[in-house]
Amino acid sequence: LEEEIRRVGLFGKVMCISAEEMWFFSQSVRDSEFFYIPFFMKKKKKPAAGRKKFDILFVGSDNSFNKKGMKWFFEKVFPLLPPSVRILIVGRIASFVPEKENVTCIPFAPDLDDIYNNVKIAVCPLLGGTGIKIKVIEALSFDLPVVSTTKGVVGFPSKLHNGCMIADTAAEFAAHISGLLQDKKLYKEYGKLAGN
Questions:
Q1: Rounded alpha-carbon distances, angstroms, from residue 71 to 26, 103, 104, 125, 170
Q2: pLDDT tens digits, residue range 22-59?
Q3: What is the C-alpha separation between 162 and 160, in angstroms, rounded?
Q4: Rounded-to-integer distance, Cα 97 and Cα 106, Å
Q5: How far apart are CA 138 and CA 101, in angstroms?
């Protein structure tokens, strides 16, 4: 965090993609001018209805926050999920994921559109980190419900009614995943919120 603050201080003008991020850095870096420019993404074409190849998706690099989040997910949440749940992990984080029968890892995907179109929900089990999580915004742009920790929605203008179910305990996180996968009405409701 200290290194991030130092780097921000190297610039006279700083653009932030969340109001929380702007507030935080402006408290620590006094000689820079800050601007809030919300992150935006083109709405993705909704895929045709049909069976999805995977139930759960996590996309991430191999940074320390993703490593800790995946460790927590597989040690605490994974044992609480039904054994039939099919999980896809994409990105360099894949090399830090334990081998499991129902877990597929793809270290690099040239096109994430096909990936997002073949999963039911996305997860963001991060226990730390700064700034808005692009992986969450990207999943929401495909109308995918997201199960996230509180840290996963840092920087969102609205923490509620945005397509994300929030849980900070393993039991709640697993329950939200199971609820979305088993309750068609709940899934449709959160998918609609994600698309707004």
A1: 32, 14, 16, 9, 12
A2: 888 999 999 999 998 876 666 666 655 667 899 999 99
A3: 6
A4: 11
A5: 27
